[in-house]
Design brief:
The complex is a heterodimer. Chain A is an all-beta fold. In chain A, strands 2, 4, 5, 6, 9, 10 and 11 form a seven-stranded mixed sheet that branches. Chain B is mostly beta strands. Chain B is globular and about 45 Å long. The chains are: A mainly beta, B mainly beta. Chains A and B meet through strand 4 and strand 5 of A and strand 4, strand 5, strand 9 and strand 10 of B.
């Protein structure tokens, strides 16, 4: 089992460029989510999905897009990168529901210049 | 303003000392979790508490969920250098809204040998 995988591990973008962060899990989890981690702010939820075809916004969704065409994959798209999106991005998956453990990927460190 | 506030934000102690980390909110959560994160990796679950007033012990770590399910604490007895890391609390789902999990602001612990 690979668990939760994320690619790329590092990325540098120029302002205005777009890109997709990839996330995949092989645990057949229904619930997947994307977080960003900034110093002193813990993890903030960007978007999440409770199953294939169903997505919803989290705390900080602006500037990001998601889709969930399969149970395994949950890509995060940056539409037009801004310096404020410089952060470490984590993808997580779980069975969902009350108290379910979230399994995290290794993260993608993104710098926007 | 984040839903879950942790204190202190930074903690540096000598090996063998005791410490307590607090996680507070004005919202009621169905469950509360504590994660630990090592540099360059994703968070890993330590414990989940679901009942108000619940106390769980994991070796030298004691976790408590507040009676009103709005706050939690993590107490470490006789800290060791291996306890060094970022400790994050996470609450969710909220009583009347969806499936979102919210993370705290984090406590960075350094245990000096």
């Amino acid at each position: 089992n690979a668990g939760v995988t994320q690619t790329p591990k590092f990325q540098v973008l120029k302002t205005g460029q777009s890109m997709t962060l990839q996330c995949a899990q092989d645990m057949n989890h229904e619930y997947m989510s994307w977080y960003r981690q900034d110093p002193g702010m813990g993890l903030r939820l960007i978007h999440y999905s409770v199953g294939a075809g169903i997505t919803d916004q989290g705390e900080v969704p602006n500037g990001y897009n998601v889709s969930r065409s399969t149970t395994e994959d949950f890509p995060l798209r940056l539409l037009s990168a801004a310096p404020s999106q410089t952060s470490v991005y984590f993808c997580a998956s779980s069975y969902g529901g009350r108290g379910a453990e979230q399994y995290f990927g290794p993260g993608t460190r993104l710098t926007v210049t | 303003t984040q839903l879950l506030e942790q204190s202190p934000q930074f903690l540096s102690i000598q090996e063998g000392e005791n410490l307590t980390v607090y996680c507070n909110s004005s919202s009621v959560f169905s469950s509360l979790q504590w994660y630990r994160q090592e540099p360059g990796e994703g968070p890993v679950l330590l414990v989940t508490v679901v009942t108000g007033g619940e106390v769980k012990k994991l070796k030298r770590l004691t976790f408590q969920f507040g009676d009103a399910r709005k706050d939690s604490s993590l107490h470490i007895t006789a800290a060791q250098p291996g306890d060094t890391g970022l400790y994050l609390c996470a609450g969710g789902p909220l009583r009347y809204t969806g499936n979102q999990f919210y993370f705290g602001t984090g406590t960075s612990l350094t245990v000096i040998p």
